[in-house]
Amino acid sequence: MLRRAARAGLTALLALSLVLAAASMIRIARDPALRPFADRATAAIAAAMDREMAAAATPARIAERLTALLAEEPRNWVAIDAVTDVARERGLPYDMAAVEAARDADFSIAARASTCAACAWDIAQCRLSAELLCQAPMLTGIGDVKDLAREGMHYAAGEEVDPVTVALSAVGLGATALVLASGGTSLTLKAGAAAVKTARGMRLLSPPMTAMLQRAAREGLDWSALRRTGDLRRAVRPGTLGPLTETVREVNRLEGALPTVETLALLRHIDGPDDARRIANAAEALGPRTVGRMEVLGKARFLRATARLSNIAIGLAAGLWGIAAALMGMAAHLGHTAALRLLRRLAR
Description:
Blueprint: H1 2-30, E1 37-39, H2 42-56, H3 59-71, H4 77-89, H5 96-106, H6 109-121, H7 141-156, H8 163-172, H9 177-181, H10 186-201, H11 207-220, H12 223-229, H13 242-257, H14 260-267, H15 273-286, H16 290-297, H17 299-304, E2 307-309, H18 311-347
Antiparallel strand pairs: 1-2
């Protein structure tokens, strides 16, 4: 009788634990406030990054990153300089001669004149270095007006229009749904949108980020209404632009913590609003050391240092451990019962 009661109690406890665990997982999936990971505080991010760097920043890793970066075309001098800064900061050796030879090749007077002219004419020809100043108009309203005018001419001529350029340029002028959906924080979104547009022109955006931009431009603007009225404001669908709005806002935070060229260097690692928020958090904690940490640690390890398990995740883990303990208890009980039955049979 007691054994049956014990089995029934364990079964009921297991069933209840499974229901509670499933309910917790559903809540985590549905409610952003209950996600298993939470953002670390600024001081905690810096401490976690230091721990990760202590393990990852080795001479072999520095050599590996510099070899890969120096082989790129065009070279990303923001990343190269960030990695050499890490090496000097930690007293690690690196191939200084190779770095300086590449620098001399890229920054001779003739090379600078040629690349700066190409960059000023076509932003896709720009590289991540100080020469991005050639594209200063792209980071202001002048670039927005120019892009909207160009796309307007394409539209009037019945030619293909780039919807992403239209959307982001209009954001920069404070005329699209990103500004409307933000509750009026146009300056915040204007700066972030300019950085995203520049990164897109330089082909620095990740495929998921590019897909999000395309979806926002395609579904966030009523193109049929735009063709009928020509009024961009009336063609806006603010409700579909939430992820892009959040991403642009976090990019602005990132640019507030770092110079523009370093922000652009980090945009390639952003796939959506969560990445943007966590990288911006890290930039506010690390300042000029951010790019170097990203290059040495890699995106996955870098982002892991910005997050911690949330309280609900810890509670869920404890619940799952309880389920495992209950299952082991039931298995032990069943094994004990089976052993007793076997002994009784052998004793007959």
